[in-house]
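Lab meeting notes turned into a lecture example. A postdoc, R.K., suggested we walk through two folding results consecutively so the class can see how the record format repeats. The first protein's sequence and structure tokens come next.
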Amino acid sequence: MEVSAGLWAATILALVGVIVADLIIVDRRPHPYTAREATRWVIFYISLALVFAGFVAATFGGRYGGEFLAGYITEYSLSVDNLFVFMIIISSFAVPPEHRHRVLTVGIVIALVLRGILIVLGAAAIERFAATFYLFGAFLLFTAVQVWRNGDDEPDPEGNPLIRVVERRVPTTREYHGTKLVVRLDGRRVITPMALVMLAIGTTDLLFALDSIPAVFGLTEEAYLVFTANAFALMGLRQLYFMLHGLLDRLIYLSKGLAIILGFIAVKLLLHAIHETTDLPVPEISIAMSLAVIVGVLAVTAVASLVAVRRNPALAERSPEMLAEREAAEVAGEALGHLPPEAGHER
């Protein structure tokens, strides 16, 4: 699959254009984001991803269209875990409801830039060393076991080290000034919590990318498809945050399903590594089978979760969302406590 520099540039510009248009349309009048509004945008972004999959299939062939689709679905599914930590971060910084959409948008743009760097490094490693697939496969297998065992644990974002460094070395204030990132107080410029929370979301997301990016590389070796799958998944993640609030508490087996998907992709990677580095006659898993397994596991997981919660509503109390909500309530405004109180007024 040969992707020209022109297509790369056009794709990045188009993605930037969509995000800017989203910001202009939604944030021209800051307001609390509703589930109905979020649902419309989720449908829009999913439709956009499907159109892009059709473009890839028409331009490069059905195989690559299927690889993008499998990577997109996998990345979007794995990104659900991000939502729980985002919930805690937003609560910890006491972000006003009307500004949460902008915080998520800018935070995810930061995350996409950082993921782009990881994708370039991963693609270079794969191109030079076929054995990289062994490392990716082993890491995903380890992650799958951890997710299966600890999927119901409370999310624990800890303190973001980068944010702690910024708080110590850069003048900050605990007061919000609308959507401003920097304001002048008592004759000096200080950073507002709006800038800190955006940075926290963008850099914390990078931790989740350490397993999701190898997972997508397990479905396609094309850096262009890995990047666009990540981009479309992250763009739709903001609206998913608002749309699924109150629903994820019923998807109690979601972590088990994600663990199975990670394990499946790990096996696919290891088989491919053996095929590339030895003469052993090992089977390879097609992209059609991969797509069927991913969609099938997610569907079975969702149905099993809903049926189980309907029979025993108490199960929802231990769901990742309920744990995240309790953690968010406990840390509400906690991050602001580390910042100095506002000493003056904006000038």
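The second example is placed directly after the first for contrast:
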Amino acid sequence: MTRPAAITIAVLLAGCATPKVTAIVAPVVDLRAQPHTDAQAGTHDPLQETQLLYGELVRVLKTEDGWAQVEAVEQPEFTHARKWQGYPGWVPASALSAEGRPWPTTIVVSEPWVETWQDAYRRQPSTWRFPMGTRLRAIEMGRQLWQVELLDGQTVWMPYAAARSLEELAALPPLERRQLILRHAERLIGEPYYWGGRSPADPRVLNKRAAAHGLDCSGLVNLTYRAAGLDIPRDAHEQFLNARRLNAPQPADLIFLSERGNPERIVHVMLYAGDGKLIEGPGTGLSVRRISVEDRLKQPLDWLTSGTVVDGQTVSFGSYAP
């Protein structure tokens, strides 16, 4: 299969002059295949597409009875229309900013969830909490706090250790970037599997109508790379399409599994953690886990090559890490 040219946000935004481009204004929002539907956690919900994080850009195609049909331009997707586009679906119109995103982001949240305060003395808690992978506009406050400007113009403060500068991440040496990806993945071990999920569990969410939280296999990979400053597609098949092909993985590279009997269709992705281990979101009803390659694929890594078939599924290796 030929690897396509790299897909970037700039490419997906090209030609967007007519449809409105705006941003998400909730910590996490479910992108649904149909409007007026609620996500069903703990099951394979066929209407659950993906999740959007605060500040992520969407292209608004139309609105209907309080819902908006959008393309999530920061999550490149190919399968729905057999062309690269922003991930398509529906979100509540109330989750969209009226102003768009007028500023570039400068930091990305690196903790599973981070709390914020209304004041720099951390005496007044803010209602805003953000999950890993959220990109925000902030200035550094003496390596103690980040001062964050939100989309509506208000300001909150968060711990300096809870986020990383995107500029600093871009300058990391390759080995440090790979190690950081794996540290993020290790922080998410034990998180619940949630089909279409792309956010760690938030124990403080009690409202049943709020977005459910958890991670599917490709959401785990997408989020850990995003938190390390790297943009990759959302779904396993798309991650495979745009990855560099490998004969053998290095730590933080990806191990793909195809649909049984169909090597052209990728249905699962795992992070290689080094030392013969991998980290994956294994499936509905299970949690993100670390497991040996041999236990998971019935063969040690040294015996596997791209094209090896295990229980009817074809194994492939790919990379986005430098």
